[in-house]
Amino acid sequence: MKYNRILLKLSGEALMGKQQYGIDADRLMQYAEEVRAVAEAGVQVAVVIGGGNIFRGVQAEAFGLDRVQGDYMGMLATVINSMALQSALEKLGTPTRLLSGLTIQRVCEPYIRRRAMRHLEKGRVVIFGAGIGSPYFTTDSAASLRAIEVEADVVLKGTRVDGIYTADPEKDPTATRYPQITFDEVMEKNLNVMDMTAFTLCKENNLPIIVFDMNKEGNLRRLINGEEVGTLVTMNGAQHNLDPKHGGLQPDVHHSSTASADQQA
Ligand code: UDP
């Protein structure tokens, strides 16, 4: 197994499937099945799930409401998604714990780092709800922070595109995928892998990120087995299967780029 402990970030929006809002049951079960497979293979799995399928703080501003209030609403949305994923995993027989950045004691444990570590060691899938529990952050930041705190080997950012591209592949057919790239290159080329706070946390703590297509069946399992899936972001452009000291490859074609894994998520 290539990784011992992973942090999987799933966007809330991806949970909508083909719907306009909320949770698509098939998509939810598909994600739960992917997580179950890697957890049963012996990988310690932590999950952060977004809330964009229900509410985002910025929407509150658009309604003329208070931003901070909106952010708390967004955090609660992530708890709803986390509860759904927890339930789906348990239906498949996978033990889970939901730890929340906001205290909601009837439905989840409060986030306590040592507890999270212990649950992971015991093989429970740990879902972190309510982001980091503070407004003006995103669940990408929560994913980076929690991954660093629990000493995960990698942040796996599941999107609907199979990696980071030289340009947005949904708009530019000539765009090519980077198999791997450095943190510095992502910044230089202005590629929007995660929001800057989340990205900087990973960079400063030398925590690799892999952006990959979570909707392709078996992809998570392939990643765990060390196959080259998606785009690996590291300090030195290490390749998926090679010595981390090895220098990174360049993609076949270069374009100036504003591709966004976030927009693609
Ligand atoms: N949020 C927040 N603090 C956090 C995490 C999330 O305030 O630590 C709020 C924020 O308003 C955000 C919303 O919760 O827009 C939902 O999370 P996010 O947008 O990251 O979800 P995703 O885009 O992954 O679906």
Give a structural overview:
The protein is an alpha/beta fold. The protein has one domain: Carbamate kinase (3-Layer(aba) Sandwich). 35% of the residues lie in helices and 16% in strands. The protein has nine helices and nine strands. It has helices spanning 25-40, 57-62, 67-91, 113-121, 139-149, 183-188, 196-204, 219-224, 261-264; strands at residues 5-10, 44-49, 96-100, 109-110, 125-129, 154-159, 180-182, 209-213, 231-234. A nine-stranded mixed β-sheet has the order 4-3-5-2-1-6-8-9-7, with helices on both faces. Helix 5 (139-149) runs parallel beside helix 7 (196-204). Residues 242-265 have low confidence and may be disordered. The structure holds uridine-5'-diphosphate (UDP). Residues 11-13, 50-52, 56-57, 70-71, 74-75, 77-78, 131-132, 134-135, 137-142 line the site of uridine-5'-diphosphate.
Q: Give the domain tally.
A: 1
Shape label: globular
DSSP summary: helix tally: 9
Rg (CA only):
17 Å
Category from helices, strands and their pairing? alpha/beta
Average predicted confidence as pLDDT? 91
How far apart the termini lie comes to 27 Å
Largest sheet properties: 9 strands, mixed
The ordered string of helix (H) and strand (E) elements is EHEHHEEHEHEEHHEHEH
Low-confidence stretches: 242-265
CATH topological fold name: Carbamate kinase
Strand order of the largest sheet: 4-3-5-2-1-6-8-9-7
Q: Which CATH class?
A: Alpha Beta
CATH architecture: 3-Layer(aba) Sandwich
Beta-strand residue percentage:
15-25%
The fourth-level CATH homologous superfamily is Acetylglutamate kinase-like
Bound molecules: uridine-5'-diphosphate
* Total count of strands: 9
